[in-house]
Amino acid sequence: MEVAPSLVLDQYAQLPRTGKPQPGEWTVVAGIVLHSPSEAPRVVALGSGTKCLPAAAVAADTRGSRLHDTHAEVGARRALRLFLMDQLERAARGAPSIVVPRADGRGYDVAAGVEFHLFSSAPPCGDAAVVASAGPAAAAAQIECERPPTHAAKRHKPSAASPPAASPPAASPPAASPPAASPPAASPPAASPPAASPPAASPPAASPPAASPPAASPPANGSTAPLPAEQGKECAQTGARPVSPRAAEGEAAARGRACVAGVARTKPGRGERTCCMSCSDKLARWHAVGVQGALLSLLIPTPLRLASVTAGGRASLDALLRAIASRVTTPSAPAAPRVAIARGVAFEYAQPSYPSHRRPASQEGDTRPCSNALLWYSGGTCEAVNGLTGLRMGANKRSFSPKHRAQACKALLLRRFCKLCIAVPKHHLPPEISAEAMSRSSYASIKGLATAYQQRKLEFLQSSVFREWVIAPPVCEAFTDEDVNGPPSEVQEAARAIV
Ligand SMILES: [Zn+2]
């Protein structure tokens, strides 16, 4: 195990109460831990949340004001980008930083030996939640972000009509200590493990996880066969819908009894389909192209990748590895990150079907996902966001103000990037960047300057699994900093303040 889950859970426990689940709610938390030769491991970025906006709300956000996706893993990655910006600002003014100028003078690299490790309290939604297993563990492996636990994965009854699997699934690692008497697909009270203790005032420090399976090697190729319900095993389904209409129709017709492993999916949700891809697919993309994104790759050109991914809950090592690495077949894809399952992690706000659930019996039953999200990074402030609007908590729903925007929304990321380009010494900027012109360039066109990153992205989107990747309409990234944040003179003044 590369990450001590307690580091992330303790950091979450220390954050303010606002934005955390209320009684009867659950959430997912994800954190990124920095390993460095010069200091003890520490959490540098954290996100919690379970929501994303419907496609219509995303399309209407033409000024980059809202967070479209507030799932925990996506929040942690956004927080990491803010942390990296903070480190770049520090480097620009000569302060100690984890980023250092590159030898060729163009841009920065993270210092030698620095690694980023992700821990999530639950398996990423989408492909990593599609698990075949012989026991109840599989049912608990799903993340249902919109549907109540009543609709949890159902035990499949073997049927002669089930389609044959192309190949048997790799065996999932055995689950340690399954919860006592918690059959899958029962009503919430029956499906929930008995409440073992009253709620702690703060999340208990995670008990040292039981020995996790060794870091796994990727299989030769990612399985894309329906998981074999006909073998009499349960198939934990994901509420995330396949992007392919044919696969989606097939799963709908099977009423969730057979999920297809390995396919790209949009995030779970009732009603209108969202245009946000599942966390499993996004993790695969970050692995392929770099977790820093296009904008930051202009200043940190070397692709940053997660050195390891650890999931809590009833995750499957095989599904996790397949979801985030084995499906990536691009020429420039690196070796798979190490993956691990954290057993026995006690997260106070875990989904009730998880064995680590510790709510009292009085709070079981009608549990629902918490609609609020938290985003925090080392050196910054903690921000609570309403996942249903993508704006900061407390924002007036009827009248929008720029003050309601979260610091990680595209509009504010762009302003901060423009400030950075002015603050960074000119000789460290790539030649294609004109710091003074940044404020009048669209968000999309600035991202387009990152040619190496765009090439990796193109390769990724042309690979068979991800060919039907759903994106937000282009109008969502057509705004400029000047359009949405005011005149560039303000940017220059702010940049001078940084220096
Ligand atoms: Zn997710």
TrEMBL record:
Listed cofactors: 1D-myo-inositol hexakisphosphate
InterPro entries documented for this protein: A_deamin
Domain A to I editase: from-to ranges? 45-479
Q: Which GO terms describe its molecular function?
A: metal ion binding; RNA binding; tRNA-specific adenosine-37 deaminase activity
* Highest taxon in the source lineage: Eukaryota
What reaction is this protein's catalytic activity?
Answer: adenosine(37) in tRNA(Ala) + H2O + H(+) = inosine(37) in tRNA(Ala) + NH4(+)
Annotated Pro residues bias:
165-217
Q: Name one Pfam family in it.
A: A_deamin
User: What keywords tag this UniProt record?
Assistant: Hydrolase, Metal-binding, tRNA processing, Zinc
Any one GO biological process: tRNA processing
Q: What does this protein do?
A: Specifically deaminates adenosine-37 to inosine in tRNA-Ala.
Report the family membership: Belongs to the ADAT1 family.
Q: What's this protein's name? A: tRNA-specific adenosine deaminase 1
**Could you tell me which species this protein originates from?**
Prymnesium parvum
